[in-house]
Amino acid sequence: MRLPAVLLILIALLLAACGTAPPDAILEKSGQSAIVFVKENSRENNNNNAMKSNRDEFYAGSDLFLLTPIAPTGEVTNLTAQYTREGKSNPRDFGAAADPEISYDGKKILFSMKVSRQSRWRLYEMNTDGSNLVQLTDAAEADDMDPIYLPNGQIVFTSTR
Questions:
Q1: How far is 150 from 142, CA to CA, in rounded Å?
Q2: Over the stretch 124-138, which tens digit does the pLDDT of each residue have?
Q3: Burial 9-39 (b: 16+ CB within 10 A, else e)
Q4: Contacts of 104 (CB under 8 A, 6+ apart)
Q5: Is it the case that residue 139 has pLDDT exceeding 60?
Q6: Long-range contacts of the stretch 123-132 (C-beta < 8 A, 24+)
Q7: Which of 57, 76, 121, 137 maximizes the CB count within 10 A of its CB?
């Protein structure tokens, strides 16, 4: 009879210890000032999770975005639209950006991008404010994707070479 009462008290104490801070307060305390994310244009009635296995299939117009600060009122900035959409009037011809990785010092973004539907996936790096875009790879008949920074500053990635 004592065991259920003790368990009930322990559960109540655990729940009380969890706190009631809203998610926004938790984010503000995390010390993070920005977040980079990919926004994909979805297709109706299509739950195609196999897109990563076939790089010829992609959501045209997918771009990297920066949210600053991390809050519901934060400003959202598209970092790649000028490269994936420039000079293209038909959304089906748009390129796409994917696979963002932030450098260890928080100053650079490494990512994969197709500048148009016909182009190949290449690796790019830019400053976290979207400036100073540099193309890192350019294999004629291959796709380069899923880049990762190593602690020593080098980069590893997946390729179809």
A1: 23
A2: 999 998 999 999 999
A3: eeeeeeeeeeeeeeeeeebeeeeeebebebe
A4: 149, 151
A5: yes
A6: 123/147, 123/155, 123/157, 126/79, 128/34, 128/36, 128/66, 128/102, 129/66, 130/66, 130/77, 130/79, 130/80
A7: 121
What is the spatial distance between Cα 157 and Cα 79, in angstroms, rounded to a whole number? 21
> Do 65 and 34 touch, CB atoms closer than 8 A?
no
In this prediction, residue 51 carries a pLDDT of 46
Domains of the chain: 21-41+56-159 (2.120.10.30)
Query: From start to end of the chain, where are the E strands?
Result: 35-39, 63-68, 75-78, 94-102, 108-116, 122-127, 134-135, 144-149, 155-159
Retrieve residue 32's tokens.
């993070």
Other beta carbons within 10 Å of 57: 10
Q: Report residue 97 as tokens.
A: 């950006």
39 near 82, Cβ under 8 Å? no
